[in-house]
Amino acid sequence: MPTSPPRYRLAPDLEISRIVTGLWQVADMERDGHRLDLDAAAAELAAYAEAGFDSFDMADHYGSAEDIAGRFLARHAPDFSSRALARPAMFTKWCPTPAPMTAEVVRAGIQRSLGRLGVSAIDLLQFHWWDFAHLAWLDAARELAKLRHEGPIRHLGVANFDTDHLRVLVAQGVPLAANQVCFSLLDRRAAGEMSAFCLAHGIRLLAYGTLGGGLLSERWLGAAEPAEGGIADWSKMKYRRFVEAIGGWGVLQRLLTTLDVLARKHGVSIANVATRWVLEQPAVAAVIVGARLGQSEHRGDNLRAFAFALDAADHAAIDAALAGSVALPGDCGDEYRHPPYLTASGDLSHHLEGFPHFYQPMLLPGGRRGVDSGSIWEVRCGFSRAVRTGNRILVSGTTATAGSGERVSAGDVAGQAAFILDKIAASLAALGGRLEDVVRTRIYLTDVAQWEAVSRVHGHVFERVRPANTLVQVAGLIGNYGVEIEAEAELS
Question: If we measure between CA atoms, which residue out of 180, 260, 244, 179 comes closest to residue 212?
Answer without folding.
Answer: 244
